[in-house]
């Protein structure tokens, strides 16, 4: 039957303003981010969404809370939707960190994880969705790692390709997540 999966990134954060790669640090939305979160709510609140899943990092939780304030739609937090863990490099200048991101495709950041490990973590979340949400329309609020995992899983875009191209923000992505069979 499948799931209609809508993906949105967390809204603009104070660290985005400062050019920092927040990683597993909580982060906090900027004024612009709070406005964007309210706009996300205007776009998605009456869009047939039955549940919102969000990374448990504060900037994603704050995005969902603002967007769905006063709504009956449940907001569920899941740590597997987190950004890649840059380990000891969480919070460093993004331009500096991302110069070498291809080196961390399979090799973890110091004290953190690799991009492929982050994608596998998100895939664990995606694997669990059909048990409760098959046939429904859900919203996932996450990060670049979340987006790359969904793109690879649904559209077959290899991580090796995605990591070499800049991530381009937009107002949401829509996917059809097919249930995996026991054969693969």
Automatic annotation (TrEMBL):
GO molecular function annotations of the record: phosphoglycerate mutase activity
Binding-site residues for substrate, renumbered to this chain: 22-23, 59, 83-86
Enzyme Commission number(s): 5.4.2.11
Pfam families linked to this entry: His_Phos_1
BP GO terms, sorted: glycolytic process
Matches recorded under CDD domains: HP_PGM_like (cd07067)
UniProt-listed InterPro entries: His_Pase_superF_clade-1, His_PPase_superfam, Phosphogly_mut1
Signal peptide: none
Segments traversing the membrane: none
EC class: isomerase
Record keywords, A-Z: Glycolysis, Isomerase
Gene3D superfamilies: Phosphoglycerate mutase-like
Family classification: Belongs to the phosphoglycerate mutase family. BPG-dependent PGAM subfamily.
The protein's name in its UniProt record: phosphoglycerate mutase (2,3-diphosphoglycerate-dependent)
Native source organism of the sequence: Rhizocola hellebori
């Amino acid at each position: 039957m499948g799931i209609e999966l809508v993906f949105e990134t967390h809204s603009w954060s104070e660290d985005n303003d400062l050019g920092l790669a927040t990683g597993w640090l909580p982060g906090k939305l900027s004024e612009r981010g709070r406005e964007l979160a309210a706009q996300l709510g205007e776009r998605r609140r009456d869009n047939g969404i039955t549940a919102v899943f969000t990374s448990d990092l504060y900037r994603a939780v704050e995005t969902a809370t603002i967007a769905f304030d006063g709504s009956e739609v449940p907001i569920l937090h899941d740590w597997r939707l987190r950004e890649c863990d840059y380990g000891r490099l969480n919070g460093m200048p993004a331009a500096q960190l991302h110069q070498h991101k291809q080196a961390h495709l399979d090799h973890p950041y110091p004290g953190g994880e690799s991009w492929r490990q982050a994608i596998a973590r998100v895939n664990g979340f995606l694997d669990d969705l059909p048990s409760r949400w098959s046939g429904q329309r859900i919203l996932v609020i996450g990060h670049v790692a979340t987006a790359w995992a969904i793109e690879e899983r649904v559209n077959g875009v290899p991580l090796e390709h995605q990591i070499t191209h800049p991530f381009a923000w937009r107002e949401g992505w829509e996917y059809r997540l097919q249930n995996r069979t026991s054969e693969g």
